[in-house]
Amino acid sequence: MDNFRQNEINQAIASLESKQSLLIIGEEGSGKSAIAEAVETVFSSRGWNVAIADYESSSKDTLLEICDQLGCDTVDNSGAKPKPYSAAQLRMEIKTALSTNNTLLICDNANHYPVAMQRWLKNCLADRALLLMLATKPPAGGIFFKMPRICIRALESSQIREIMLEEATEIGLKLPASELALLEQRCGGNPFLARRVVREHSLNLAQDQEGDRVDYIDGTPFLIATLSMVGVVRLIGLGLGNRSLYIIGGIFTISAITLRILVTRANSRSKTRLES
Asked: 104: which DSSP letter?
């Protein structure tokens, strides 16, 4: 997996080396966690203080996990009896640690972080903390808007086939070229799905399914055809002197034009989100 995402790994390393935080965006199973682990290995081997965290249960548990990896205090020993730090105190300890040189916080699945933690991370970023965040469909605003980003692309057909053959070899399955081509269509360039569909095939499961990816049909040609038909209706009404037919054609023309504008704008917004 790492080899197929080596370009993204190198880009992330170069960005962090220049003290520039980075956001990596990719769909589920695209290899974000593999990138995070590779970056963590590289910087840890250089003697950096690195924490890699994934929000799973609660904010405090995540903060404790980060503190444990960064070596931050989590208990107040100033009194007669040790007292665990509150979430606010843990955030302060982490923020202080992140202010030192050669300290990196990697936030995997950052889109799952609650809003309060996202705001705290935004404050850390404003104080020049070095962050690597990885997310699937992150919100448009907040810290995700502030950070430079890399968008993970789908793998090439040859790469997906290599992953599928590797998985098939691991489980002792022989995949003829014809079956491999059919299974590849269900992956959509996603390495995790490539491994999963091979295992499903070995168990004779989900043979009639299309996979987890959905390809949407462009409705623009249908709109153009509809507009053309409406124009024909109007011309017929005009030629026959049928005012009712002419009015109905005009109403449908306006409706079709309005619908075309709405669909065009929706497609533009979707394309912008995918490219951002």
From this structure: E
